[in-house]
Amino acid sequence: MNHIQKGLVFLLCTIVSLLYKVDLSAQTVVDSLKRVLVQPGLTPEEQVLTRLKLSRALLSTNRKEAFANAQVALSMSRSLKDSKYAAQSHSSLVSLMYGQEDVKRVRLQLDSAFMLAEQSGDPYTLENVWYRKGWLENRIGKPHDAVKSFQQALKFGEKQPPNSYATSIYYNLSAVYGDWDDLENQSRYAFASLDAAKRFPDPDDICNAYQAIATSYEHRFAGDSSARNLLDSSLYYNRLAIQYYLENKNRISFPSVLGILALNTANLYAEYFPRSYRDSAQHYLRIAKEIGVATDQQEIIASSYGMQSSFELADGHYDAAAGLLLSGLHTLQQSPTPDNNLMAHFMSSLSEVAEKKGDLPAALNYAREHSKYYAAAFDAEKMAIAKKLEAQYQAQQKEQELISLQEKAAFNKKLNIVYVILIVACILALLFLFRSYHFRLKSTIQQQALLEKEKRDAILQVRLKEEEAKTLELEKQEAALQAQLQSEAAARLQAEQQLMQAQKEQLQKDLLAGTLQVEQKNELLQTLQAKLQEKSGDRNLIGQISRMIDQDRRLDEDFETSKTELENIHPEFFTRLQEKAGNSLTRLDLKHCSYISMGLTTKEISSRMGVAPKSILMSRYRIKQKLGLGKDEGLDAYLMTVAS
């Protein structure tokens, strides 16, 4: 269930990146700035900057009041001579309005900020606006443009005193390169973020820089899990960030950052360390939960419950896992706008636990709830994608308009020079020639594009035909291979049949030889019996010997009969037994085995063989030992298997 915690950590990191720039502890900043605003003699410029700082400080606690202060700052800045104050006000509104307003309106705020920043020419304001442009581009799915904007912002900030924007820019660049799996640049910008944060010591910036470095080491370890030093480095910077937070918690703007750091650290212990480190993971989960409760961050609390439930589930404690998941779900439901993706993850995990417990109705209900929340999340994602596409379209439109305006301005400038030098008739002629040339060039370009398209289509058709020919050849080869396999299978079957026939003929020969031996022995016994009758000295001894001869003859007859019957059923029966016993089975043992394989009971076997049932049991024990069968293996079952 770590996917719940990972998804939640990603969401929380996104929230932190949205609310990243605050200078002091939120409550301390709010109180301090409000006191500054009521001070007498405050200039309009100072009031604007103070309200913008107050807006940023209120961002995580009271978004509505933060927006109101930014609007007041914008209204006041319009009356100021220097346009940099209005540019900074519009830039602040970009982050405040994103996610709450239409993206088109956000773009309008950014365009206004750019226009006013360029009018002011202030490098710090231009750095601010270019950073905000990259920030917005990264969130609407244009990371390549965002990187260019961030680099442009850094150029404006090169000659400026250390400020928090440099830290934010490096932090965002590290995140973008991390998404691109460019681990070298991700690590480089993460350390650059820390260097910038130390030059402009802001506790929030330093905490986030440590977190960025820890994330870069984690990504590098994911690419090379044998390098345990990378994992140790990730843990070190996570713990360093937590320690720094605890030492400066009165100056931290967003206490929820500690919850995210604790969750990241707990996840590293849970994912990459053995179970003996679970206490360490639990320790950081407790920190995350305490911070979540203190800052009313339901997502952090729910994530802690979800991760704890994964531990219980791994130990087979399904009831405890379900209880923790329900607690996390209840916590999420307390949020004014619970995230549908997280709700769907929790429902999926509850369904999994219920299924393992055998509670299929509950599992089905949770699965249905998962489908409902997943559908809602999917619809929201589609809406977000649509907004991103619209924003991209609007951005392209704005860029085209900007290019058009720039071209028009350049043309007007040239036209003004031409007006001074040439007469109106010449200017009109030049304009006509220019437009004519433009249309001819456009027509030529279109024709070339059409020819290129036709050429590509022809090449594609040729490739399709070649692929079809290759496919047909492969089908033919496959058919030939199938035919060859069938032929080999038929040959193998014929060989097996011939082998079985040869074995049967050999067994018949062996049976015939045995029968001849028995007949020869019987003749010998009959001769011996006749000689004994002639010598009638001791009648009792003669009677006993005669009975023994008769009994042996009957055994041979019975054995030959049963052996013939068994040979007709399974020719290899006696051969397999002798191979298993190492040719240690006697004729009586073989007879006993044949009776057992025919399904006769102990009583029936003792009757046929003329011995006591106890003797039959002893014989079974000896046969089992000769065959090397274990205590748990039954003689009857084994003989049935051999006879089948």
UniProtKB/TrEMBL annotation:
Transmembrane segments: 417-434
Residue ranges that the Swiss-Prot or TrEMBL entry lists as coiled coil: 455-538
Chain ranges of the HTH luxR-type domain: 599-626
Single GO biological process annotation from the record: regulation of DNA-templated transcription
Record keywords: Coiled coil, Membrane, Transmembrane, Transmembrane helix
Superkingdom of this protein's organism: Bacteria
An example Gene Ontology molecular-function term: DNA binding
Protein name (Swiss-Prot/TrEMBL): Regulatory LuxR family protein
Protein species of origin: Chitinophaga polysaccharea
